[in-house]
Amino acid sequence: MATHARAIEAEPTHEGGWPRDVTRDVAYLRTAIVNVVFFGAERARDWVLIDAGIPGSAWTILSAADRRYGPGARPSAIILTHGHFDHVGALHTLATRWDVPVYAHPLELAYLTGRSPYPPPDPSVGGGLMAAVSWAYPRGPIDLSGRVRPLPEDGLVPGMPGWRWVATPGHTPGHVSLFRDGDRTLIAGDAFVTVKQESALAVMSQAPEIHGPPAYYTQDWPAARHSVRVLDGLAPERAVTGHGVPLGGRQLREGLHALAEHFDELAIPPRGRYVGSPARADARGTVSVPPDPTSPWPRVIGGFAIGAVVGTILSSPRLRSRG
């Protein structure tokens, strides 16, 4: 089940169509299957990048930044909602090229400084091809030692006045969302998403629907439920999520509220590796992982489909940014 909502009619910021404005100073760029967010109005001197796309997307992000802010523009910081591979794929290249600090929640730092991989994905949940092949997705860690820093304890977001970070664990231990009280704009990462990310067909069509976090990579379902309820309590006016199109207005609020109220039925799989037995983590990274109850055959079969799925998705004109 899913809760349907109306997509924000995001305006193309440039002739090429990307990045697209959500508000005057918030724009998003789709890098194949995942969004990155730019905070800062066009031609602003001070701007921030939120998340860093899939592997291989550095040039797309750099080109979009040049179009929006001017040739050679660089942000004051990069903020991470979390450290999964599709949100940090271009991070090392971007952080090095721009020579800027990277900020993440303290409980994400182990995955960003080479100390711990994330728990294995669960390809048995979600019911789609993107989920079935998730066992092959990189788990990290990456190593940005010396460049990555913890987000401030006071909840402020470096380089983003008027915004605060909100702890929204569950999908990962240190997942955060960003919220601006002034106009109730939410950057939700993968705390919830607006496309059925487990399904390759849904990812290609980008039909807007409110869903829980991508199931195959969510390691603590009770925490994920609580996080969605926290975000519902903020009553956002508009939301940009890590996957799918931005949503806004009454449809967003009602859809998010329905997800919060009926999270167990709408989001939590009936069974799965982390259903009832979350992975455990602390500042050291992953501490314990429940045993894998699934047969290896889905992985073997899924292996033959990986090349076709990834190739189809990455080549889809609906998903390619024009950068």
From TrEMBL:
KW NADP (keyword) present: no
Keyword field: Hydrolase
Claim: Endoplasmic reticulum is one of the keywords in the record: no
Top EC class, one word: hydrolase
Annotated Gene3D superfamilies: Ribonuclease Z/Hydroxyacylglutathione hydrolase-like
Any one Pfam family match given in the protein's UniProt record, by short name: Lactamase_B
PANTHER family: METALLO-BETA-LACTAMASE DOMAIN-CONTAINING (PTHR42951), METALLO-BETA-LACTAMASE DOMAIN-CONTAINING PROTEIN (PTHR42951:SF17)
Protein name (Swiss-Prot/TrEMBL): Putative metallo-hydrolase YflN
Source organism of this protein record: Aquisphaera giovannonii
